Fold this protein.
Amino acid sequence: MISKRVKKIPPSGIREFFDLVLGMPDVISLGVGEPDFITPWRIREKAVTVLEEGYTSYTSNKGLTLLRRGISGYLKKKYALSYDVDDEILITVGVSEGLDLALRAVLNPGDYVIVVSPHYVAYPALAELAGAKVLYLETKEKEEFKISLPQLKKLLKYGPKAIILNYPSNPTGVTYTKEELRRIWRLIAPSHAVVITDEIYHDLIYDGFHTPFSALKGAKERTILLNGFSKGSAMTGFRVGFACGPKEVIAAMTKIHSFSMLCAPIVSQFAGVESLRAQREIAFMRREYARRRDFIVKELNRIGLKTPNPQGAFYCFSSIEKTGMDSLSFAKRLLSIEKVAVVPGVAFGASYGNYVRISYANTIDNLKEAIVRIERFVRQSC
């Protein structure tokens, strides 16, 4: 009864693991990639107000003009990027739907898609559901988990239809300078590959500045920019994001969206409009994440779990090699013995069994207690 394509895809390594956490008392969760902040009041107040005013209908398939205009203005002001409000912006139900739409809009069965690893669990799954074949570009700790240009050049010889880039990265927190992105684009440009960028963590960069891939000279016509409000504005439950790209691609994505989803929730779209005005609140959360990052990276390295300094997002990707355990065993035993939840590295790629993802989207007090528990566990294990 079940599709062969669906049967082939394993369940999410993140969600599968956290089924174990449900119902366990006294667990400190450093696993799920979700802000611990409540959505800023001004955004929640806007949602309440539009509900009270009776905004409970569908919007156009493309989304509220007010929100699309706001996104267009925001990208123009912050990044000098110009996207037409009517033809080059689509409001989606989060970045996840945007990615699904983008892949289905550009891929044919048998096309190749490059996925940079370690990767968010949805990337290869959605590519395979669209009938594509995945080429993994595996990054390495010794290269700061950044794209190897010789490796990229090698994979481009397969003639991929698309490449998925995520920066700042989940799970490593790695991001790229403008010059690094230029080098990547110079390799991709002669090919016919479409670049699909997941830039959902663009508000959460602590070292340097974010450069949208489509802001690179010549890249805009071949880039589908995916973004949203879930992470930087702490709006995960609102399920609202956006896609920007060439007119014909956005039209194709909108066609699929109109049949499968119709539109993003109207209340969430109005909340998204308010989020664009909440830059002070976003800056506060970013400063707090940076403070937590500085604490936990220092402590993890002190106890012997080698941890590169993440430049963005709210994750550490820590080596557990010294413990002699694989990531799944480490995560399960840590949860069972010390009641601290982290995500096994193998959830983000088969080659990352010596790593765990640790989220610092939690209070400083919880992070301090988690370090005490992790250190005790590591000492007993070694």
